[in-house]
UniProtKB/TrEMBL annotation:
CDD domains: ASKHA_NBD_AcK_PK. GO terms for cellular component: cytoplasm. This is Acetate kinase. Keywords: ATP-binding, Cytoplasm, Kinase, Magnesium, Metal-binding, Nucleotide-binding, Transferase. Substrate binds at residue 89.
């Protein structure tokens, strides 16, 4: 029996999902938290059960050993030989990686080098890759990059209008993110619409705590809202999204708590967005509760959020010169009914209409009316499945 593990490793966490392949059956999933800290927590979910244990896990190598021991302990594998592949999610692939890649020494070094672009994500991913390589050196090990899907963007879309030496010398450009999610939902949208992906123009809206919008032309990303880092784009849960860059030196001059550019960037990443404006929460459920309570700051945060989303979606209609469908995905995109309704209401000029009987919690599929000129779809994302599929692809090539 062939089993593949999809891994999403952070600086102090390791999220995983075990698949039976090629059937694409999820056998188990889990999360190891607080790696490198006392009282680490390892949770395994399988067959409707959940098991957690608290122990000290000093590094990612130990985390991988705990993961594998849990698979044996719960009878999810009989021995390590059943695991034939592992796929690792990596946020930043820079210009090195235009597609997923088999792990080797050079690939690991490049992932670590690109930590400059994703300092919160790439180091943990590299540690997870090394850990699996040490323990299971003979399986098919693949890295899947959030940025690789966006490497099809034309140069005029990914370059910033600053002196070109900064691109030549330092590779400062738009890289995007959430590419695995955008790739998955675009493929699923084509199935749902019953049309070949290479004939479609799609706008995919990944709206979770992080938000990115992508213009997909015939199956390829031609523009996306996140930039050099995931800070760019529409307003997000705790991130500001696009702002006037002159705000950074201005705040350093005015606010004694912000001494460096790094201080401002941290504030823009962790204390802004819905959280910063509402002064209450980054969670849309809390925002909706605040709106019902007529809290002014919460209402304002929501209105800014909707405004920025409409603007980005609108500009991608221009990039594509029209679109066949708009796809909502990720936490808020899949579940925030009112948000979807308010976005579409502000884009009615494009000929989009939502059926209120379909725009309900838990509905997956086409939520637009028969008269809607642009289809509006709700498709749950599945980045882990895309990772497992990429591993399967490389297995066949070996």
């Amino acid at each position: 029996m062939s089993k593949t593990i999809a891994i999403n490793a952070g600086s102090s966490s390791l999220k995983w999902q075990l698949y039976q392949m090629p059937e694409e059956e999820v056998l188990a999933k889990g999360l190891i938290e607080r790696i490198g800290l006392n009282d680490s927590i390892s949770t395994v979910k399988y067959n409707g059960k959940s098991d957690s244990q608290t122990l000290d896990i000093p590094d990612h190598t130990m985390a991988v050993r705990i993961l594998l021991e849990d698979l044996l302990k719960h009878g999810l594998i009989k021995d390590y030989q059943e695991i034939t592949g592992v796929g690792h999610r990596v946020v930043a692939g820079g210009e090195y990686f235009k597609e997923s890649a088999l792990v080797n020494d050079k690939v690991i070094e490049q992932v670590e080098e690109l930590s400059l672009l994703a300092p919160l994500h790439n180091p943990g991913a590299a540690a997870g890759i090394r850990a699996f390589r040490d323990i299971l050196p003979d399986i098919t090990s693949v890295v899947v990059f959030d940025t690789s899907f966006h490497t099809t963007m034309p140069k005029y879309a990914y370059l910033y209008p600053i002196p070109q030496k900064y691109y030549r010398d330092y590779k400062v450009r738009k890289y995007g993110a959430h590419g695995t999610s955008h790739r998955y939902v675009a493929q699923e949208a084509a199935k749902m619409l019953g049309r070949p992906l290479n004939e479609l123009k799609l706008i995919t809206a990944h709206i979770g705590n992080g938000v990115s919008i992508t213009a997909n032309y015939h199956g390829e990303s031609v523009d996306t809202s996140m930039g050099l880092t995931p800070l760019a784009g529409p307003m997000m849960g705790t991130r500001s999204g696009d702002i006037d860059p002159a705000i950074i030196p201005f705040l350093i001059q005015q606010d004694p708590d912000l001494e460096t550019a790094a201080d401002v960037v941290e504030m823009l990443n962790k204390k802004s967005g819905l959280m910063g404006v509402s002064e209450k929460s980054s969670d849309m459920r809390d925002i909706e509760a605040g709106i019902e309570a007529h809290d002014k700051n919460t209402v304002l945060a929501y209105n800014i959020f909707i405004d920025r989303l409409k603007k980005f979606i609108g500009q991608y209609f221009a990039v594509l010169n029209g679109a066949d469908a708009l796809v909502f995905t990720a936490g808020m995109g899949e579940n925030a009914i009112g948000m979807r309704q308010d976005i579409i209401a502000g884009l009615s000029w494009f000929g989009m209409e939502i059926d209120p009987e379909k725009n309900v919690f838990g509905y997956v599929g086409d939520i637009s009316t028969p008269n809607s000129k642009v289809r509006v779809l709700v498709i749950p994302t599945d980045e882990e499945l895309m990772i497992a599929r990429d591993v399967e692809h490389f297995k066949k090539m070996r």
